[in-house]
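Thread: "does anyone have the structure for this chain?"

Original post by V.I.:
We have the sequence but no experimental structure in hand. Need at least a predicted one for the grant figures.
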Amino acid sequence: MATLNSLPKATSRLVFKSLAYNTPSSTLFPSSASTYNCQLFTLKASPPLKTSNASTPRTNKLSYISPHPPPSYDSLVANDDPDKLRRIAQLHKPYSLQLTMLVGKKKVHKLATVREHIKRRFREAVRLVVVRGATGEKVTGVNGTDTGEKELVLEKEGELWKHGPRRWLLPGYSYVVIIPNLEIYRHPLPLLVEEVRKALIHVKKDALKKAMESSLGKLDLREERQRQVSHSLEDLPSQGESETLR
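Reply from O.Q.:
Generated one for you, tokens below.
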């Protein structure tokens, strides 16, 4: 089994961002969030908040213009195919994931170093799944018997370039992880990676299902409203009837 230090260079990068500590609970745990529960953690994914354009401050676009032009990838990789140039360009644009981790001092551990180690292990498990397509496969013995252990297996580079991080993550969604105990601290990494893989798949499928049901519900309401308007128009008197009423 390959160790983290001996892994080859990843095909893409993943950057973690966290919500502020004073974020209200209605934002952290909305009713529309998709949830995955297990013994190690609880993962919640909530859709992006709807913000009005009026509340968003306007910024000067000139402030974002770099004084120096970006380097040309054609000069970095001369006489190369376009796919390789595209892959190199993608390496300079990391995928941003909003992941907020709640690790309680009372339930998990009183030492901040232990809690930070748990956060780091979970983030690395997420990075292995999203960036490298890692999974935990069973280890077979000499006679083909199941040893009860799992090893870390990485996906091939071609499949990673084909799907990318969006295979596992929902763009714009906020992920919140609740760590209830100290189990992740000593849990084997292949088993943790496998559990994280299941959680990301379950949360994405459930969120897409809820989004589709919401869209269908809005469509049904729109059709019902149009039906009510058409019925109300039918109840109005015609031109001949209105003249007789006069």
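V.I.: this helps a lot. The chain has a mean pLDDT of 75.
O.Q.: and Residues 5 and 124 are 12 Å apart (CA to CA).
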